[in-house]
């Protein structure tokens, strides 16, 4: 299924039904009083988060969504039926904004969370409401109020505990396959990953955390180069970022330290809050026997890196268990 994380749609709440003017006409009472009922309330538009959805593709082809109009009032003091509410299901992590004012209606971060976006119009009043001591046979009634309508921008931001960032072919997808049950595509060419992937990592009998793998960054991503920074927004909800770096990238002409600086620079350009998140460096491909200790020292000296550095192999799993334990310990301490 195609991954769609941004859509523009219009929603229309139902109009209220009209009130009516009518009079009682019964046996032995041919000129009875007013009996016009009120119109029904228009249906409202709600959004509800559903953990079974993972894309906004359902909104890609249907751009307009309308709740039901309220029924008109009836004679014999009968009110019109209310219009049926419209509940639109979206993935957990969807942000709903007014496309013009950019006012945020809601951020649906939990399964089942439900918000009202467009309120249905009130029903009109029947002529029974206009009876008075000087007007025993009123013919006035009111029309139903129009329902609210909005043009909305829906933006999906995935919810994960850990975010993986790195250049193309650093081994992010291989790592997430190794430590979780996720099966992203893995191949020996750049931009194999074209959309975010989520993997659930279990580290205890009843404990787990979620890792998000996004397409690789390259220099200039914040300016739209490559796949740009389009997918970095999916890391804004994470609690820890892992910089996955190919420890052998100098063989292919680039330098691991330059790679690390590229990632750091692009994060800083994109958003300060993302840059300020806790970040660890993870050197990959240790199975190919490079001098990891020397590389760690160079990173600390040349970049001024004072946080943790791990060495792993996404292929053999070397060092992965130790990294997962450290992540679990970090998350548990953060929860306290």
Automatic annotation (TrEMBL):
Binding site for Mg(2+): 173, 193
Location of the protein in the cell: Cytoplasm
UniProt keyword terms in alphabetical order: Cytoplasm, GTP-binding, Hydrolase, Magnesium, Metal-binding, Nucleotide-binding
UniProt cross-references to Gene3D superfamilies, sorted A to Z: GTP1/OBG domain, P-loop containing nucleotide triphosphate hydrolases
Keyword Magnesium: yes
Binding site for GTP: 166-173, 191-195, 213-216, 284-287, 313-315
Limits of the OBG-type G domain: 160-332
The keyword Zinc is assigned to this record: no
Entry EC no(s): 3.6.5.-
Assigned GO CC terms: cytoplasm
Group of enzyme by EC: hydrolase
A GO term, aspect molecular function: magnesium ion binding
GO annotation, biological process: ribosome biogenesis
Tree of life domain: Bacteria
Cofactor(s) needed for function: Mg(2+)
Domain Obg: 1-159
Function as written in the Swiss-Prot or TrEMBL entry: An essential GTPase which binds GTP, GDP and possibly (p)ppGpp with moderate affinity, with high nucleotide exchange rates and a fairly low GTP hydrolysis rate. Plays a role in control of the cell cycle, stress response, ribosome biogenesis and in those bacteria that undergo differentiation, in morphogenesis control.
Similarity-based family: Belongs to the TRAFAC class OBG-HflX-like GTPase superfamily. OBG GTPase family.
Subunit and interaction comment: Monomer.
Name of the protein in question: GTPase Obg
């Amino acid at each position: 299924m195609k991954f769609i994380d941004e859509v523009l749609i219009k929603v229309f709440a139902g109009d209220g039904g009209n009130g009516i003017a009518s009079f009682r006409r019964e046996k032995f009472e041919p000129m009875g009083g007013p009996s016009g009922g009120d119109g029904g309330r228009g249906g409202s538009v709600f959004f509800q988060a559903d953990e079974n959805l993972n894309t906004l593709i359902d909104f890609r082809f249907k751009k307009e969504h309308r709740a039901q109009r309220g029924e008109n009032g009836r004679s014999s003091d009968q009110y019109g039926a209310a219009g049926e509410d419209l509940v639109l299901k979206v993935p957990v992590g969807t942000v709903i904004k007014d496309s013009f004012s950019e006012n945020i209606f809601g951020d649906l971060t939990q399964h089942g969370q439900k918000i009202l976006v467009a309120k249905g119009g009130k029903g009109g009043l029947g002529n029974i409401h206009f009876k008075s001591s000087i007007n025993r046979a009123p013919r006035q009634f009111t029309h139903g109020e129009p329902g609210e309508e909005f043009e909305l921008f829906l933006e999906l931001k995935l919810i994960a505990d850990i975010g993986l960032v790195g250049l193309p072919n650093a081994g992010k997808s291989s790592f997430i396959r190794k430590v979780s049950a996720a099966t992203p595509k893995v191949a020996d060419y750049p931009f194999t990953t074209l959309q975010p992937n989520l993997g659930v990592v279990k580290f205890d009998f009843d404990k787990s955390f979620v890792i998000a793998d996004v397409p690789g960054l390259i220099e200039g991503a914040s300016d739209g180069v490559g796949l740009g920074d389009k997918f970095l927004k999916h890391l804004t909800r994470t609690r820890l970022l892992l910089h996955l770096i190919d420890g052998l990238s100098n063989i292919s002409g680039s330098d691991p330290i330059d790679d690390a600086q590229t990632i750091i620079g692009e994060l800083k350009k994109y958003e300060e809050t993302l840059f300020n998140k806790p970040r660890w460096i993870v050197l990959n491909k240790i199975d190919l026997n490079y001098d990891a200790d020397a590389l760690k020292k160079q990173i600390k000296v040349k970049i001024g890196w004072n946080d943790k550095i791990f060495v792993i192999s996404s292929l053999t799993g070397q060092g992965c268990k130790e990294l997962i334990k450290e992540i679990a310990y970090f998350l548990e301490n953060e929860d306290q």
